[in-house]
Amino acid sequence: MPPIIEVKDLTKEFRTFRRREGVLGALQNLFVREHVTVRAVDHVSFAIEPGEMVGYIGANGAGKSTTIKVLTDILVPTSGHVVSNGFVPYRERRRYTKHIGVVFGQRTQLWWDIAVIESFKLLKEIYEIPERDYRQRLDMFSDLLNLREYLHTPVRKLSLGERMRCDLAASLLHNPPLLFLDEPTIGLDVVAKDRIREFMKEVNRTEGTTVLLTTHDLSDIEELSKRIIIIDKGRIVFDGDLGQMKKRLAKYNQVKFFLKDRSQVAYLSRVQSDGIVCERVDELTYLIRFDREQHSSAEVIRQIVNTLEVRDIFVEEEPIEEIVKRIYLSGEVA
Questions:
Q1: Of 222 and 21, more confident
Q2: 313: exposed, middle or buried (C-beta count within 10 Å: 0-12, 13-18, 19+)?
Q3: Average pLDDT, rounded, for the chain
Q4: Do 113 and 232 belong together in one domain?
Q5: CB–CB of 215/254 below 8 Å?
Q6: β pairing state of 276-280 and 53-57
Q7: Last residue of a domain, one of 224, 247, 270
Q8: How far apart are CA 131 and CA 121, in angstroms?
Q9: Which of the 8 DSSP states describes residue 21?
């Protein structure tokens, strides 16, 4: 089976002009403009198989949103080859957009002043969804996302979390095989994030929907994606299994422990040494980070329990945020 998304040497450039400073500079800009070409995406290549949930991440300005906009036919690429769900997006827009779902965390596809259910009915007509399929999917999404109490509420009166749930349902009403999510959990609380993540897992499991997810919340990636693509300064710096990345690039492990009482704080310095750093989490909770090449987890735990009286202790992996940050700063896997 061919990939559902195939991107080869995708490049997107923007031509802008450099503004001069001051009043004199503003006058010069009226007559002589200095143009600059900015390459937002630089020969990016990747393929995504049907049914995959892939995290596509990068710092602000790295090029991830530009890539998504090319794949969803908002932008036309400068050069390169893009095939998505059997279509070349910028050549077959009308047919292509009927076969994808898109959710942008900062924008809504729902009509602002009418009830949510009326927006759904309009989308039913736009996508020519059969009545039976529409009812079946609306019932399923209403149950999974707990939408029933919002269906007759104008979109403008919904909270951000409520609107995002409605936007997710709207993007999947026509049962697209491919879904693009751009910052779907931005600004949401923990409960709303968890509901959306569980919904996406269920849709992927039951419908086989392929998902390309961009986010700054790396806990989204850990919850939803086994594969991660990292883009930096317009270029792919990592494309592979999330677990393998953590195994290959994680330099530190950490042990979190809970002291029996405040008297034990005085002895914390005894468990610190070269490559072992102790950090305070709260009054009785501490975190020890250690270089896994210099020390083993068993060695560190033994040193803690032999020195301190603790109520509980457990080992954690280095957070994915730290690994990704190190990739950005050092180009470690470039």
A1: 222
A2: middle
A3: 87
A4: yes
A5: no
A6: unpaired
A7: 247
A8: 10
A9: P
CATH code at 153? 3.40.50.300
Cα separation, 10 vs 152, in Å, equals: 43
Q: What phi, psi does 281 have (nearest 5°)?
A: -100, -50
CA dihedral sign, ordered 167, 172, 174, 178: positive
Question: pLDDT for 105-153, tens place per residue?
Answer: 778 889 999 999 999 999 999 999 999 999 999 999 999 888 998 899 9
> Are 240 and 256 part of one and the same domain?
no
243 lies in the same domain as 262: no
Provide the percentage of residues in the chain whose pLDDT is more than 90: 43
Residues 276, 161 within the same domain? no
Output phi, psi for 290, to 5 deg.
-145, 150
* Residue 68 shares a structural domain with residue 181: yes
- Judge if 174 and 221 occupy the same domain: yes
In degrees, to the nearest 5, what angle opens at C-alpha 101 toward C-alphas 236 and 194? 80
Contact between residue 15 and residue 80 where contact means Cβ atoms under 8 Å apart: no
Q: Over the stretch 265-301, which tens digit does the pLDDT of each residue have?
A: 888 888 887 778 888 888 889 988 888 778 888 888 8
Residue 297 structural domain: 252-317
CB contact set of 101 (below 8 Å; sequence gap of 6+) = 171, 172, 174, 176, 178, 179, 180, 209
**Residue of higher predicted confidence among 23 and 208:** 208
Q: What is the pLDDT of residue 157?
A: 93
Cα 142 to Cα 228: distance, rounded to the nearest angstrom: 30
Confirm whether pTM is higher than 0.85.
no
**Total domains in the fold of the chain:** 2
